[in-house]
Amino acid sequence: EVQLVESGGGSVQAGGSLKLSCVATGFTFSSCGMGWYRQAPGKERQFVSMINNIAATNYASSVKGRFTISRDNEKNTLYLEMNSLKTEDTAQYYCRSYGGVLGCQDTWGQGTQVTVST
Fold first, then answer.
1. Could you report the per-residue pLDDT of 80-92, keeping only the tens digit for each?
2. Which of 1, 64, 85, 96 could form a cystine bridge with 59, CB 3.0-4.6 A?
3. Is the Cα torsion angle 74, 77, 78, 84 positive or negative in sign?
4. Cα–Cα distance between 41 and 77 in angstroms, integer?
């Protein structure tokens, strides 16, 4: 069974840092592109960052320079290090595996909440 389990969310003051993790099971993690998305209350889910199978990365302009995506293929784990957090970063953060490649399928995790306060 393909599964993504996020952790690491929490409450932090503006300017602080958090590191999210996403453990993947049930598929060949190293072959698949992976991404982070977020959804604030009353808003649509939006792209945050992605990393492909050769570790090339891409970021939304709103987080570029503050967030860093990485992956550990030995641990089947995706990370999102978030620095200089702002109140507008408050959202439920979701891990996603991308399909379209043999052995990969489009799957979402259940999410982890990040709350940034002043």
1. 999 999 999 999 9
2. 64
3. negative
4. 27
103 contact partners, CB below 8 Å, separation of at least 6: 27, 28, 31, 32
Structure tokens at 76: 């089947």
Sign of the four-CA dihedral 22, 31, 35, 95 = negative
Give dist(CA 84, CA 66) in Å, integer: 6
Q: Which tokens in the block code for residue 96?
A: 């996603």
End-to-end CA distance of the chain: 40
Tokens 């990365």, residue located: 57
Q: Which residues contact 58 (CB under 8 A, 6 or more apart)?
A: 49, 50, 51
Query: Going along the chain, which residue ranges are E strands?
Result: 3-7, 10-13, 18-25, 34-39, 46-51, 57-59, 67-72, 77-82, 91-97, 107-108, 112-117
pLDDT in tens, 37-53: 999 999 999 999 999 99
